[in-house]
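Priority: low. Protein: Ribosomal RNA small subunit methyltransferase I. Input follows.
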Amino acid sequence: MKKQKSYKDEAGKLYLVPTPIGNLEDMSVRGVKILEAADLIASEDTRNTQKLLNHFDIAAEQKSLHEHNYKQRIPELLELLKQGKVVAQVSDAGMPSVSDPGQELVAACIQEEIAVISLPGPTAGLTALIASGLVVQPHYFYGFLPRKKKEQQTELKNLLTVKATLIFYESPYRLKTTIANMTEVFNEQRQAVICRELTKIHEEYLRGTLAELKEYLNETSVKGECCLLVEGQLEQEKEEKQIFQEPLKVQVEQLMTEGLKPNSAIKEVAKQNGLKKQVVYNDYHDLNESS
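Result:
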């Protein structure tokens, strides 16, 4: 067990400073003061952070800290912190470490018993959630899904039974594909919200079912930073899952009572269970027993 007293003596401190996700006026007074007083600012992209510093007339030294150089940079930052220096860490937008670089430095500081102090501030996920119209509590923040279709669908299947509102970040260039994958894995009647350009002049919320959003994106492209929120598991989906847990033969018979012919029912059950049609056919006709 380790106990942190955040403001004890003059020891070095790592401040995690959130930055605006769009509107620069969202920068907090405290955040500006910390950046002004810091001995060094560890930035995801120094060029991007420099625009923020210029806006608030902050003269401060920066060093980059991102996914490609953190192994080299962290020992340098730890040495400064051990000397009693104050380091402020920022990402390009929002909270450091949330789908951005940073958690490695935090973990290293905790290991070395250096105080880590987080400032509250802008974060796209919660900003979008409270205006989405979806259930706010509970919610489940995921961040960026894998890019490859098979890996993405595997992750979505893992989230299938989560009842909380799901929060994702997504590139506008991949949004159409991601929602198409969601309509395959989730019930397409789940409510969902695309939030784009949050806090900026072109801020927009697109609310509808996954099916409606898929149709919209087939006809219209979106631009800008996007946050995607999806309703948690529906009662209807839970009932469907219970049906799929029945023996294959029972599943076929249930579909036949709904009007499907035997071959069509066998084909549908095979699809729903990810099986070859012959496997379901054999089970339905009791052909799996050895003669």
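The two ends are 63 Å apart (CA to CA). The longest strand covers residues 139-144.
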